[in-house]
């Protein structure tokens, strides 16, 4: 009987040792899995933090660009308005000058003076036409530059929209 008790005790001890070893293996596997999960969560948190930082930088830059574009548009609008007023004033002054020249031409009865005044008038008209053409070209250049800036702003805004779609706030 004592031998039987010893044998059963030995079997129980072996079974217990085996069970303890299995539990230790299971605990070690769980620890490894837990460590992996913790590392993954830390990496995800770091990635999320970096994405938020980049998004904030992009939003800040976009806001700055929007302000710059608004300021540029306001400046260009003011310059265009000023140029239009200057052009109108010049055209008015030149029209007045042309009217005066025409009146003077009519006052002179001598053919020689009339021809001279007509030559002067033609020259001034040509000069005015040339100046008007140059001013129109300058105005067109300014308009094209403004349109290009507007297009660049739209492209940048579209890029920002794509960033928002790729990194939606719920994801971050």
UniProtKB/TrEMBL annotation:
Region (Disordered), start-end ranges: 23-49
Name the UniProt record assigns to this protein: PPUP7764
Organism whose genome encodes this protein: Poeciliopsis prolifica
Lineage: Eukaryota, Metazoa, Chordata, Craniata, Vertebrata
């Amino acid at each position: 009987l004592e031998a039987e008790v010893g044998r059963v005790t030995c079997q129980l001890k072996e079974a217990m040792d085996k069970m303890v070893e299995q539990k230790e293996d299971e605990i070690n596997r769980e620890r490894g899995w837990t460590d992996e999960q913790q590392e993954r969560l830390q990496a995800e948190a770091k990635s999320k933090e970096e994405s938020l930082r980049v998004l904030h930088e992009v939003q800040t830059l976009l806001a700055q660009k929007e302000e710059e574009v608004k300021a540029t548009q306001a400046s260009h609008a003011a310059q265009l308005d000023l140029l239009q007023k200057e052009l109108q004033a010049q055209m008015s002054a030149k029209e007045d000058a042309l009217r005066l020249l025409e009146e003077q031409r009519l006052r002179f009865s001598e053919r020689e003076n009339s021809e001279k005044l007509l030559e002067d008038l033609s020259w001034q008209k040509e000069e005015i036409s040339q100046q008007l053409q140059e001013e129109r070209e300058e105005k067109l250049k300014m308009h094209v530059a403004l349109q290009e800036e507007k297009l660049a702003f739209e492209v940048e805004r579209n890029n920002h929209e794509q960033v928002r779609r790729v990194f939606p706030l719920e994801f971050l």
